[in-house]
Design a protein that fits this description.
alpha/beta, five-stranded parallel β-sheet, FAD/NAD(P)-binding domain
């Protein structure tokens, strides 16, 4: 808790941000961390609520009331230690997490919740600036070797925990830089890559070895960024390592097989976004997909779609329109029914503030050819959603005579991801669930273990498309399961 009466005395303070008209001219982060005084005041708003629903609402179970109180009292280094005890990478979650903890905040019942995410952001930024984030090498080495396949948040969290337990950890990444979807899926204006780079340096000092540009298995997925220079077979890893963690992201994009899909200018979001990230990193990308001067249509209303909107505006798009198949959510939730759960309501991102037309309950019928094999338009139709009384399921039907056409020089699919790269699981012979994810439990004996001996799975590879914070949680828990498998017991936290 913070100050007993703080929630009555102080209003929630949003983090300051650069004006939308100026920030679209660059790819740098534009959200500013709270000052020490501002963070202390926001920490003071944390109530003595008795049951910290924020903590259970957080996938990594951050000890939020404790570090809110520590910030309020000026004990910043202790706040950082408390934050790091449950979250390896708060600089990632403090920037890109949707903050389910805030939705679960007790104050959120009838007021603005505590600005938990902004306080987390302030703690970790101050920690790096003050030199408090240092390597934590193990006191002893076990001699056990673990391979981590995939270097996104799940893989990095798993690798760091295992290295601190004394194991020799090697992280394999198919792309040319470490970071997975943190590196090539999230735009720099939301997460600058220096945050990943300094964690890599810390982990190397802790004994983790990184092997970028190495594809594990026979081939990558269709439409999936693959910058590998060499291949390693699953049999090689099984022979060389005592345990293997499969922690790749959900990269297999959902397709839209309608007439005109083959036209030039129709792409997956995950073909478009990684290219711009590579350009920002200084790479030369031949034939880059660009929104410059084009009417851009983004199909899909989630975070990936929002990232496409922000990137298109920065590239100088003529117009940006975002479609969502589902109806428009309500502007606000009924807290009496939803709290402390994550509510269904309309959400607008910083990218929408920068310029975007949004439309809901729209289905794509076809893409229109310009006569030269390029897309020049999109044919859409409005849809109604009704509940089937027999099954309870929502069913979609087209609204008669509602077809319309919009100009389009670039169409981006941001409709979610159907599975991780299937070939990796096939090559390892891992049993999958009905959605194509690795089949493994999260609790009890043998948790995170797959059907193949000494092969474990965590993050998107096991649970499907999800949040960075969920990936960190599963990576940490998977590390403990592997440590227990190798040593018979584990002192790593769950």
């Amino acid at each position: 808790m913070g100050k007993v009466t703080g929630f009555l005395e102080f209003q929630r303070l949003q983090e300051a941000a650069e004006d939308a008209r100026s920030r679209v001219r660059h790819y740098r982060e534009f959200v500013l961390a709270l000052s020490d005084a501002q963070a202390a005041q926001q920490g003071a708003r944390c109530m003595d609520c008795g049951i910290p629903f924020c903590q259970s609402g957080c996938p990594v179970n951050n000890i939020i009331p404790d570090w809110n109180d520590l910030v309020y009292r000026g004990h910043w280094q202790s706040a950082l230690e408390t934050l790091h005890s449950t979250n390896n990478f708060p600089e990632f979650t403090g920037r890109v997490c949707p903050a389910p903890c805030e939705a679960a905040c007790t104050l959120n019942i009838n007021a603005d919740p505590v600005g938990i995410k902004s306080i987390e952001h302030a703690i970790i930024d101050k920690g790096w600036e003050s030199g408090w984030v240092v390597p934590q090498p193990p006191a002893r080495r076990t001699g056990k070797k673990v391979a981590v396949v995939g270097s996104g948040p799940a893989g990095l969290a798993c690798a760091q925990q295992l290295a601190r337990a004394g194991h020799d950890v090697t992280v394999f990444e198919k792309n040319d830089r470490i970071g997975g979807l943190l590196r090539y899926g999230i735009p720099d204006f939301k997460l600058e890559k220096q945050h990943i780079d300094r964690r890599i340096e810390q982990m190397q000092a802790e004994g983790v070895q990184f092997r970028p540009g190495v594809l594990v298995g026979d081939k990558g997925g269709d439409g999936v960024t693959d910058l590998s220079r060499e291949k390693v077979s699953p049999s090689q890893l099984l022979e060389e390592f005592d345990a293997i963690a499969l922690t790749g992201g959900a990269e297999q994009s959902r397709d839209l097989p309608v007439p005109g899909r083959q036209l030039r200018g129709v792409h997956f979001a995950m073909e478009f976004l990684p290219q711009q990230n590579r350009v920002v990193a200084g790479d030369e990308v031949g034939g880059q997909i660009l929104a410059t001067g084009k009417d851009v249509i983004v199909i899909g209303g989630g975070d990936t779609g929002s990232d496409c909107v922000g990137t298109s505006n920065r590239q100088g798009a003529k117009s940006v329109t975002q479609f969502e198949l589902l109806p428009q959510p309500p502007a606000s939730e009924n807290k009496a029914l939803t709290w402390p759960n994550w509510p269904y309501k309309l959400r607008s991102s910083s990218s929408h503030e920068e310029g975007c037309e949004r439309d809901w309950a729209v289905a794509t019928k076809a893409f229109v050819d310009d006569g030269k094999g390029n897309v020049r338009g999109l044919l859409a139709v409005r849809v109604d959603w009704t509940k089937d009384e027999a099954t309870g399921q929502m069913k979609m039907s087209e609204v008669p005579d509602s077809e319309f056409e919009l100009p389009a020089g670039l169409v981006l699919f941001a409709m979610g991801f159907v599975s991780p790269v299937e070939q990796v699981l096939v090559d390892f012979g891992v049993e999958t669930d009905g959605r194509g994810n690795a089949k493994a439990t999260t609790d009890g004996p043998g948790c995170y273990a797959t059907s193949v001996a000494k092969v474990f799975a965590a993050g998107d590879m096991r649970r499907g498309q999800s949040l960075v914070v969920w990936a960190i949680r599963e990576g940490r828990q998977c590390a403990r399961a592997i440590d227990e498998f190798l040593m018979g017991e584990s002192m790593l936290p769950r």
